[in-house]
Amino acid sequence: MIPTLTTERLTLRGPRASDFDTVAAFFADGGRSDFFGGPLTRGNAWRWFAMSMGHWQIRGFGFWMVDLTATGRLCGMTGLWQPEGWPEPELGWVVFEGFEGQGIAQEAALAARAHAYGPLGWTTLTSNIMPGNTRSIALAERMGAWFERTIDNPLVGEELVYRHPAPEAV
Predict the structure, then answer these.
(1) What fold is seen in the domain 5-121?
(2) Predicted structure pTM score
(3) DSSP string of 131-153?
(4) What residue ranges do the domains of the chain occupy?
């Protein structure tokens, strides 16, 4: 039930069990995963991984694994997310170590946003970004999103809400 999306360079696909070691390594790295709810132990990374699969079943949307199409290498995650307690759906992204600075996050996030505004029929979308995550703030702004407000997320604390342009504006 998880659709596969493709871009010029990327394949966004559903998670596979074989992805877990890469996801666990990301969550184990506090410097990399701080802005994504980490660091997490391997056991808690497994719980996040399994929860993200269940999110697709419950909500009908979630996080895709992002592969470089040419090589099949897993390079990140992007997706649409609204766990219990979230004020509204959000668009998030992560690029794994060694893949930064290649435009992967933006390319993948734009594909996910197009899916939200197209097949899902959404009319609005946010990205919740933790203060200090300057790279994600810059990406949100490159995608046309603007700072709207600050919220207190019960799971991770203060977050900055960036509102994406409406479907007719992208």
Answers:
(1) Aminopeptidase (3.40.630)
(2) 0.96
(3) TT-HHHHHHHHHTT-EEEEEEEE
(4) 5-121
